[in-house]
Amino acid sequence: MSDFQRARSPEQREARRQAILGVAEELLTEMPVSEISLRELARRVGLSKTNVVRYFETREAVFFALLNRALGEWLDGLELPAGPPAGVVEALARSVAGRPLICDLWSALGTELERNISAEAVRDFKLANGELQARLATMLRERIPELTEQSARELVSYTVLLIAGLWPFANPSPGVAEAVQDPRLAGSRVDFAERLGRALVVAVTGLLTLDSAAQRR
Questions:
Q1: Sign of the four-CA dihedral 87, 88, 93, 98
Q2: Smallest Cα–Cα separation from 199: which of 148, 162, 168, 147?
Q3: Are 209 and 101 in contact (CB under 8 A)?
Q4: Rounded to whole angstroms, how far apart are CA atoms 134 and 162?
Q5: Integer Cα distance of 187 and 162 in angstroms
Q6: Which of 32, 47, 171, 194 is deepest in the core (most CB within 10 A)?
Q7: Residue 8 clears pLDDT 80, i.e. is over it
Q8: Could you tell me which of 18, 120, 144 has the C-alpha nearest to residue 73?
Q9: DSSP states of 16-56 as a string?
Q10: pLDDT over 90 for what percent of the chain?
Q11: CA distance 18 to 31
C-alpha cells in the first residue's frame, strides 16, 4: 500500500478517498455502523489509522461522506412517476427501501454518527446533504406541483425522519425477529416500504391540505 500513502495530486487523493469509502461500504454489508471502528476500516484498506486520518478526520467523517455519495447516486437514477401525489410518494418509499446503505446511515445519524466529529466536519456534511435534500424536493415538486417550495422541503425532512425511525424496527436483532413471528405480535412487524409509503401519503396529504388552506386566506 505504499503507493496509496504516496498520493500527492488532488486526483490521487480523491482516488484514495473513494477507495476508503468503497471499503466502508463493503463493511456495512457485514456489520452495523456501530461495530465498525477506524482501526478495522484502516486494516481492511491496508493502511494505518494515521494514514486514513489524512483523508478523513474520524470514522464518522467517512460515513458522512459515504452517505452523501450514496444519496447523489440514488438521485441520479431516481425516476418518480407521474400521477396522484400518493403514488409519487409511495414510489419514493419503494425506491429508498431498495437502498439499505442510505437507510442504515440516515438512521445512524442522530444516535451514532453526530457524536465524535468536529463542528467544521458536521457543517460541511450538512451543507452538502442539504443540497441533496433540496434536489429531492425539486424532483418532488416536478411531480406534485401543488406543493409549495417550503412544503416540498418539509416533505423531504419528514422522509428522512421517518426513515431514521422506521428502519431499525424493520431490521431488528435476530432475537426480536424470532419473537415477532408469534401471531400475537403480528402488529409489531414492520414492512419498511409499506409503512414508509403510508406515512408519506399521510404527510403529503396533510401538507397539500395546509397549502390549499393558506392560499384561500
A1: positive
A2: 162
A3: no
A4: 17
A5: 18
A6: 47
A7: no
A8: 18
A9: HHHHHHHHHHHHHTTS-GGG--HHHHHHHHTS-HHHHHTT-
A10: 56
A11: 20
Which strand (E) or helix (H) includes residue 154?
A: helix 149-170
The model's pTM is: 0.86
What digits encode the pLDDT tens for the residues 126-154? 999 999 999 999 999 999 999 999 999 99
Amino acid letter, 73: E
Mean pLDDT, rounded, for 29-47: 89
C-alpha cell at 52: 486514513
**What does the radius of gyration of the chain's CA atoms come to, in whole angstroms?**
20
Q: What angle do CA 190, 192, 198 make, to 5 degrees?
A: 95
Question: What domains, with CATH codes, occur in the chain?
Answer: 1-56 (1.10.10.60), 70-216 (1.10.357.10)
Q: With beta carbons less than 8 A apart as the criterion, state whether 80 and 92 touch.
A: yes
- Please answer whether residues 102 and 78 qualify as being in contact, where contact means their C-beta atoms are separated by less than 8 angstroms: no
Q: Which three cell numbers stand for residue 207?
A: 401538507
- 193 vs 8: which has the higher pLDDT: 193
Position 176 scores a pLDDT of: 78
Phi, psi of 74, deg, nearest 5: -65, -50
